[in-house]
Amino acid sequence: MPKISVVIPTFNAGLHIQATLSSILAQEDADFEVLILDDASTDNTLDLIRDIGDKRVKIYRHENNQGRIVNANRAFSLASGEYVARLDHDDIADPRRLFQQARFLDEHPQITVVGSQIQHFGLQQGNSDFPLEDGRIKARFVSGDAYLANPSVMFRHDFIQRNVLRYDPNLYITDDLGFWFDCLLLGARFANLPNALTSYRIHEGMTSMNLDADLLYRGKERLYARLLPAFFPRLSGHDIRNLMPLYKYKVDAPLEPESLRALHRSVAVALREVNLGWGLDIEETKACLVSLLNRLRAEWVQADHLDAKDIAALDREFYLALQ
Fold it and tell me: Which of 107, 206, 227, 236 maximizes the CB count within 10 A of its CB?
């Protein structure tokens, strides 16, 4: 039985799959298998994988396309490793990635999930700056930004199987955050390593470049209706509804004045108390919520939906609600 199961979901991945697989098969000092979960590709993906001819690579193909999330969920029952490592079919793993992450989990039995920094390449360049500590990673769930990179993670297989955890297909591309939130609720702890162990390819065909804004928002509504009251226990159901515009992908119509005031009041209510039971970094959790509000206000100012007088009035109401 291998120590690590590397999971690579594929769909029409012919342009990049050989480079991705080569980076995994070149891993140093690691005992692993590679699970290719193919979602009924119609290009030459499977031929290219078979041409590599490595017995560590196992192919599981859907006869009919089931969708990215359903396809990825198959890995949990197929994997045989103690640890599961994720990688997307167009990314590249550093030669020491598996070794370093497995060693970290071996040495830190209290950690369930470990990610790493990522290096962007392709249409964009740059390195991530994800937090390293559990409390700050969990706090970033509030903003849904810069917490973990899904294709960089390794996690404990038995924790997932014992708790019957799966990605939720109703969450669109926020399924990874929903998965980590479910892990949190069941006691998972998180970490990121400080170095970039995965190179993340930015290209025109990737999902995040072709978003359906309505599906994205509906997925966020479903997720944050659960997450926000768990993190901010003073929030009522009415407050949760007031806060949902914070998770809009793009500015559309401005809120009515009363709805805008209600949004500010509900942010203030949330900031009065952070649930200490989840191990959250309190200041980071609050800062993430405030950053969403500030981003929304900046977008509305840019779109001429707010002026300086409006902001001053909202600030007065906000600070009164904090009292």
Answer: 227
